[in-house]
Design brief:
The complex is a heterotrimer of chains A (about 180), B (about 160) and C (about 140).
Chain A: E1 3-6, E2 10-14, E3 20-26, E4 30-36, E5 41-47, H1 56-61, H2 67-80, E6 89-94, H3 103-122, E7 127-132, E8 137-143, E9 148-154, E10 174-177
Parallel strand pairs in A: 1-3, 6-7
Antiparallel strand pairs in A: 2-5, 3-8, 4-5, 4-6, 8-9, 9-10
Chain B: H1 3-28, E1 32-36, E2 47-55, E3 59-65, H2 67-78, H3 88-110, E4 116-118, E5 122-124, E6 134-140, E7 143-151
Antiparallel strand pairs in B: 1-6, 2-3, 2-4, 2-5, 3-7, 6-7
Helix pairs in contact in B: 1-3, 2-3
Chain C: E1 4-9, H1 13-25, E2 30-36, H2 39-49, E3 58-61, H3 70-79, E4 88-92, H4 97-106, E5 110-113, H5 118-134
Parallel strand pairs in C: 1-2, 1-3, 3-4, 4-5
Helix pairs in contact in C: 2-3
The chains are: A alpha+beta (about 180), B alpha+beta (about 160), C alpha/beta (about 140).
């Protein structure tokens, strides 16, 4: 119960209606928030990089560091609490370009975002809403009891240049995303 | 070739790569790492897609791609099981659709008021024949791709 | 509850698979998905399926197709009074303004230009079928 904080390269799932799951300081990282409205199971992943093949040892030690190992972990964790893959709805946040001068770093946010979308499409889960791109740092939270997601932004520019994003956040500080319950 | 024509070709090539990037990002979850006048791959690319178009201007678009990139792109598009992957027929079908989308997205960028029609894409293995016109070689996250666009009738 | 009957018209089997997958993942209450490779095949399916008491609810159509293209298909569909009310959602790479205007005049309900994310397809379907989905 209470506040569950998800660190970098970590994930948490909960079916406790009193719980709020939150992750802070999503820069180029992606926060994957997931919710099954039928039985109130929520989960949140904060992954760092797109592809576990970059560092297989780390992928074993910290699988939630990568999109391709972390997203299956998140979905399986929710399924263990009773969620049904076909009902799970996902929100994405992060994927920003924080370090402007580092050419390699520039691409990480976008590559993380595409890796998340690719994995979710492959695993048969649709993205309902996203707040991605731009140069802002974001926090992503989920109030499990009512299935409500929210995104907070800190500094930088808004996300109007979000890559491929048809569904984008409005440029306000706190963005509630309607729960589907 | 005059400087003005060279500049026009540069602008068109940039638009062609921009259209390809949009399609690859949104529907294939991949990106262009490098682009150049010539393909960076030393071997010939084995899969060729041809799309002819008619309208205000007519011509042909060609996409060539290596097996690795084609398999990866097709798997991404179809959401295929990463272990089993798509079968060869599905790979060709998705490459045809990729050629169709890049050609259509490119023509839409400067034919805002015009109407154009695209013929069904034709997939050839191995790739054969070259066409004049604008050309870009791309390095993708999983392999190589070549784009060519020619306006007017195709010689030979 | 599953009762929507949908027809996907595209000469590209890959694109038909993409739309079919989107419809499945979008949790729409779909009962049947029919497929056609061009406008002429699609008209045959429309005429056959619309004899069923449960008529087709939505048609996805490409524009550039052999035999009969999407524009001719929409025109012919709207000429036949019995089949005229089935909503048509165009998905095409051709995003020129004249094309969009012309298709709206012919009676297409929506237009999506490729490349497109699956959420855009779901959003348009919900806009077009909103009341129908709610009443299921």
């Amino acid at each position: 119960m209470g506040l569950i904080v998800v660190g970098i390269s970590d994930f948490r799932c909960s079916a406790d209606p009193e719980a709020t799951i939150v992750t802070y300081a999503l820069g180029s990282c992606i926060g994957v928030g997931a919710y099954d409205p039928a039985n109130g199971v929520g989960g949140l992943l904060h992954f760092l990089l797109p592809d576990s093949r970059q560092d297989p040892d780390r992928a074993v030690a910290q699988p939630a560091s990568y999109a391709d190992t972390g997203i299956p972990l998140l979905l399986r964790g929710m399924e263990r609490l009773g969620a049904d893959r076909r009902r799970i709805r996902v929100r994405l946040a992060g994927g920003a370009q924080i370090l402007k001068d580092d050419g390699a770093q520039l691409a990480v946010g976008k590559r993380n975002y595409m890796a998340a979308r690719k994995l979710l499409w492959q695993m048969g889960v649709m993205v309902e809403m996203e707040a991605v791109g731009g140069t802002v740092s974001r926090n992503l939270g989920l109030t499990v009891g009512i299935g409500e997601f929210w995104v907070e932004m800190r500094g930088g520019a808004s996300a109007n240049e979000a890559p491929g994003g048809q569904l984008m956040e409005s440029p306000i500080r706190k963005v509630p995303v309607a729960g589907a319950r | 070739m005059t400087e003005e024509l060279l500049h026009r070709d540069e602008v068109m090539a940039a638009e062609m790569v921009g259209a390809a990037r949009d399609v690859l990002n949104v529907m294939f979850f991949t990106d262009i790492l490098e682009e150049a006048d010539e393909c960076a791959c030393t071997r010939p690319l084995p899969i060729q897609v041809r799309v002819t178009f008619t309208g205000h201007q007519s011509g042909e678009f060609r996409l060539e791609v290596d097996e690795l990139a084609a398999g990866s792109l097709a798997g991404s598009f179809l959401g295929a099981d990463p272990v089993a992957g798509p079968n060869p027929e599905e790979v060709d079908q998705v490459m045809g659709e990729l050629g169709n989308m890049i050609c259509g997205a490119f023509l839409s960028r400067f034919e805002k008021e015009g109407l154009f029609a695209l013929a069904s894409p034709q997939v050839h293995r191995p790739a054969h024949g070259e066409i004049p016109g604008i050309h870009r070689g791309l390095e993708l996250m999983d392999g190589f791709m070549d784009l060519r666009m020619c306006w007017g009738s195709i010689p030979g | 509850m599953n009762s929507l009957r949908i027809l996907i018209v595209d000469d590209s089997p890959a694109m038909r698979a993409y739309v079919r997958r989107t419809v499945q993942l979008a949790s729409l209450p779909v009962k049947n998905v029919f497929e056609a490779g061009n406008g002429a095949e699609a008209l045959e399916i429309v005429q056959k399926e619309n004899r069923d008491p449960n008529k087709l609810d939505l048609i996805f159509a490409d524009l550039n197709m052999p035999v009969m293209d999407g524009e001719q298909f929409v025109e012919k569909l709207r000429q036949d009074e019995r089949d005229s009310k089935v909503p048509v959602l165009i998905i095409s790479t051709d995003a020129t303004q004249r094309r969009v205007t012309r298709l709206r005049e012919l009676g297409a309900q929506g237009y999506i230009s490729k490349p497109c994310q699956p959420e855009m397809i779901r959003l348009k379907v919900q806009q077009i079928l909103g009341d129908a989905i709610e009443s299921l």
